[in-house]
Automatic annotation (TrEMBL):
It comes from the Bacteria. Its EC number is 1.3.99.-. Keywords: FAD, Flavoprotein, Oxidoreductase. InterPro entries: Acyl-CoA_Oxase/DH_mid-dom, Acyl-CoA_Oxase/DH_mid-dom_sf, AcylCo_DH-like_C, AcylCo_DH/oxidase_C, AcylCoA_DH/ox_N, AcylCoA_DH/ox_N_sf, AcylCoA_DH/oxidase_NM_dom_sf, Mito_Isobutyryl-CoADH. GO terms for molecular function: flavin adenine dinucleotide binding; oxidoreductase activity, acting on the CH-CH group of donors. Residues 132-222 form the Acyl-CoA oxidase/dehydrogenase middle domain. Belongs to the acyl-CoA dehydrogenase family. The gene is ydbM. Its cofactor is FAD. Residues 251-370 form the Acyl-CoA dehydrogenase/oxidase C-terminal domain. This is Acyl-CoA dehydrogenase YdbM. Residues 25-95 form the Acyl-CoA dehydrogenase/oxidase N-terminal domain. SUPFAM superfamilies: Acyl-CoA dehydrogenase C-terminal domain-like (SSF47203), Acyl-CoA dehydrogenase NM domain-like (SSF56645).
Length: 390
């Protein structure tokens, strides 16, 4: 029995947006090898996603979007992640921002409505730019070096952001910066892409997720309006993370890497069914040892499906969840995904690591799950400290 997230309901009961994602998946998957090889950005994927209304998946229905919750969004990300995880990662960051807009009391309504309208009408993506060369990820603490200076006519922004996923296509940046006020505040400012003084340095040359366009964005005295504050507070007020941001980020990232493992599993099954070594005279799939390893892969993917489904459904139903719980699920799902692909490589020998076969690419992509925030060591330390009361 094969358990998948994408097709767990009879087709007649599938929401329309799931059907649209499934329809696009084959097209997106066909483009993935070339974009991976060239580290080129898949602009055409986002044009297709926009045409199908899927960029507005988490935009509230009242604002013209689909209004999907975490469960359906995780399913879409799993489908697209299986086809091309680079595209799915950019998409996930965009989805998270619109979920936060819809649920946060801190996002200015005028700004969230403007961005919702643009997303419904065209290709208008947003991502949070947070990571810096010296700071690393702010998830581990510390103040950003990027600074917003207040003037009579607008904010003036200077700083450098690295690993800015989707940089080639983003229309909006939610930039993590500190102010130059007498009492420093820190938080997010909404900055339009392409303003004078902004430049993208194409620094992303990674082992995996090569088509995600996670380049460096440099702000050199960039001017933007004073009313573009999203959420700027005293540093101590950020000790408790935004609930929506922290929980859905972890589960959406997990869904993407689970999708990668499912792509690897599908290729493996076909390979084992078709590969007939001369000394065996039968497909590799006939060997008990092979069946056992594939069964182990199925077990890991079945666990992943249940974890993602149950957690996302609980979030949608309003259950009280914690960031630590979501981080543990991300840790478990991504490590299951990595192990599933490693087991697939074990069965395929040189074939699996050949660049003519997709398993090599899936392996490079799935390894990124181990370094993607929240990282495993941080999750374990947080869970351990909570259990020990320290």
């Amino acid at each position: 029995m094969v358990i998948t997230v994408a097709k767990e309901l009879p087709p007649a009961y599938e929401p329309e947006h799931i059907a649209r994602a499934l329809k696009l998946a084959d097209v997106i998957a066909a483009r993935a090898p070339a974009h991976d090889r060239d580290a080129s950005f898949p602009f055409e994927n986002f044009a297709d996603l926009s045409r199908e209304g899927l960029l507005a998946l988490t935009v509230p229905a009242a604002l013209g979007g689909i209004g999907a919750g975490a469960r359906d969004t995780a399913r879409v990300l799993g489908i697209i992640g299986k086809a091309d995880p680079s595209t799915a990662l950019v998409l996930s960051m965009h989805y998270i921002q619109h979920l936060v807009m819809a649920r946060s009391t801190r996002w200015p309504g005028r700004l969230s409505r403007k961005l919702a309208k643009e997303t419904v009408e065209g290709v208008a993506l947003i991502n949070a730019l947070r990571v810096e060369p010296e700071l690393g990820s702010p998830a581990r603490g510390g103040l950003p070096a990027t600074i917003a200076r207040r003037t009579a006519t607008g904010w003036r922004l200077s700083g450098t952001k690295i690993y800015s996923t989707g940089a080639p296509i983003l229309k909006w940046y939610a930039v993590w910066a500190k102010t130059d006020e007498a009492e420093t505040r820190v938080g997010l400012f909404l900055v339009p892409a392409g303003l004078p003084g902004t430049r993208i340095e194409e620094t992303w040359d990674h082992l995996g997720l090569r088509a995600s366009g996670s380049h460096t964005v440099v702000f050199d005295d960039v001017v933007f309006p004073l009313d573009s504050e999203i959420d700027v507070r005293k540093p101590d007020d950020w000790k408790v993370p935004d609930f929506t941001q922290s929980t859905v980020h972890a589960i959406f990232v997990a869904a993407i890497y689970d999708g990668v493992a499912r792509a690897a599993r599908d290729w493996l099954v076909t390979f084992l069914q078709e590969r007939v070594p001369a000394n065996l005279g039968a497909p590799l799939a006939s060997l008990p040892r092979v069946q056992e390893v594939v069964g182990g892969i199925e077990a890991r993917l079945a666990i992943n499906a249940r974890l993602i489904e149950s957690f996302a459904s609980d979030f949608d139903d309003g259950f009280q969840l914690t960031a630590i719980e979501s981080n543990i699920i991300k840790l478990t799902v991504t490590n299951n995904a990595v192990k599933a692909v490693e087991d697939a490589l074990q069965l395929t020998s040189n074939h699996g690591l050949s660049r003519t076969n997709p398993l090599e690419r899936h392996y490079r992509d799935v390894l990124c799950g181990r370094v993607h925030t929240p990282q495993d060591d941080s999750t374990r330390v947080s869970a351990g400290r909570l259990a020990l009361g320290v």
